[in-house]
Amino acid sequence: MGNNILLVEDEKNIARFIELELHHENFTVTHHISGRAGLEAAKEQEFDVILLDVMLPELNGIEVCRRIRTFSQIPILLITARDAVMDRVAGLDAGADDYIVKPFAIEELLARIRSVLRRTNRVNEETTKLIFKDITVDTVARTVEVNQENIDLTKTEYDLLVYLIQQKNRVVSRDIILENVWGYMADIETNVVDVFIRHLRFKLPQEMAIHIETVRGVGYVMRE
Length: 224
Hints:
By secondary structure, the chain is α/β, with parallel strands linked by helices. The chain folds into 2 domains: about 5-120, Rossmann fold (3-Layer(aba) Sandwich), CATH 3.40.50.2300; about 130-220, Winged helix-like DNA-binding domain superfamily/Winged helix DNA-binding domain (Arc Repressor Mutant, subunit A), CATH 1.10.10.10. It is built from 9 helices and 12 strands. Helix 2 packs parallel to helix 3, helix 6 (about 155-165) packs across helix 7 (about 175-180) and helix 6 crosses helix 8 (about 190-205). The longest helix is centred in the middle third of the chain and has 16 residues, at about 105-120.
């Protein structure tokens, strides 16, 4: 594949295992063991994906993710402990695109990496604009404007907004949203959708956010 991966993981055996498998799949891997070193690498080098453990020395992964989001929208995949539900939620709130739970199969990790790369590289070659009331989405530049003011969204937030606009006035379940926005069927909690809906509502002006309606027990709808 030839993509550059930043791996920030302090557990030596896990890091070595991931590195070997990613090299086998033709990824280039840069490895750091501390949150601070990983953050500096993200500032200084170009990567396609960051694999970021939550429990790190110096700076924890959630704080690293939060700081990276102040200067980059690179896809971030968190590596979390099985029982650390709050870490996963906090990580998504901090701007992570996805997470994987230890222990994991390497096939699942590769699938999640491919998925975030597909979302990153998915570009419509035709100049297309989606318009919903005062929201204008340029699907080539991947920009979102409300009343000609730019709205800064992560890649996943952008993909979610585009999907909701494309399905406007149609109620879509959390499972359907996961399948279409995240791009694969995996054992992932549907509350991930709720987290990103909350992100969108927060970032959009109130008069636009209210059009994202919750349908209790079903999912969401972008209602005109």
